[in-house]
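for the writeup, i need someone to sanity check this before i put it in the appendix. the sequnce is what the collaborator sent (i think, or maybe the updated version? ugh). structure was predicted straight from it, no edits. if anything looks off just tell me and ill rerun, i have time this weekend
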Amino acid sequence: MKRLRIERRQMFGKVMAVTSALLVIAGCSDDSADNIALGSNSYIGAERCAGCHQGMYDEFMQSGHPYKLSRVLNGQRPSFPFSAVPNPPEGYTWSDIAWMIGGFGWKARFMDRNGQIILGPTVQYNLETQGWSAYSNDSSHTAPDGTPGPWDANIGRKDYTCGKCHTTGWDPDGGHQEGFSGIAGTFSEPGVQCEACHGEGSHHANSPFRTEMPIDRTAELCGNCHTRDAKRRVEVSKGFIRHHEQYDEMIAGGHAVLECGSCHEPHASVLYRRSVALIADCVDCHPTKSDGLLGHAGSVACESCHMPAAAKSAVAFGSGVNRRGDISSHIFSINPIAATAEEAMFYEEDGKTFARGAVTLDFACLSCHNGEDASLQTSLSWAAENARLVHSP
């Protein structure tokens, strides 16, 4: 009997050892001991988070955040869900490219073997049009020989300083990532991974039941990157709101009381996983606004008018009052007077152009009523006359 008890204790010890090992492999440690030496908190990587949060991780890896920056290894192009970049700019092979910026959904830019961003007239790949366009071929950058732009040469360079919002664990004073002289800083992981929003995870992974992972649901967290201007003004360039300014737009348009998570599941892609990514409808807060939609009921969603494509990331379409970008505005409010954005929506300050807190009818109405169908009216005066009737019979 005594021998049997000893054998059982030995077997129990082996089971517990295996269980502890599995917890570590899965990404979480056994924290049942009274005293755990956690040490300083540090980054552990998104794959370790997946050990305990597999479903959330799988959804997140189908969104755009993890692919803001990707390493090009062994001359093989990076692969993403839903979208693909077929090749680097003309004159380059994948072996000439060390890093790719973006590539999910809208556009891709490329960094050379020194870690510098390649500039020029045909160096940005746009996924929607499957074509090439210019990137930063302007006076703010210089050609390789030091000549200020714009330049006639096809090639230019600039250092990569975008890690604050494109990487996880960015340290601008940490030197040069992997020795790439063009990268002005270091990071734990390329792309916006789990710990970019939740913070370092080693304490939680080593003691999951004692150390909770921070979950910041405030819009200010998203606003750390979805902004451009220190005064929270909405920057405009070439007739469109610039991309990744959603936080500033919400403030300008009167929705500052909301958190981004009021409408968005932050781990899912609105572009490709819309049914999962959007967790609220406009009518949840505005239940009567869908009544009597003049000529639009059942065919046009609220966001078609209140979140028109007034922002641009990669490409724009149309021209004049019939133009549209490729990113939905988060201003929401509509100015119903017959005026263009240049007249009523945009303003100049501190040598820059900014947007006020309401989109004008050229974006809200005429980006769809654009003359492609002869039965659709296309004038601002027509839009102003009918816009006031949309929410009433």
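Residues 65-195 form one domain. The radius of gyration is 25 Å.
thx in advance!!
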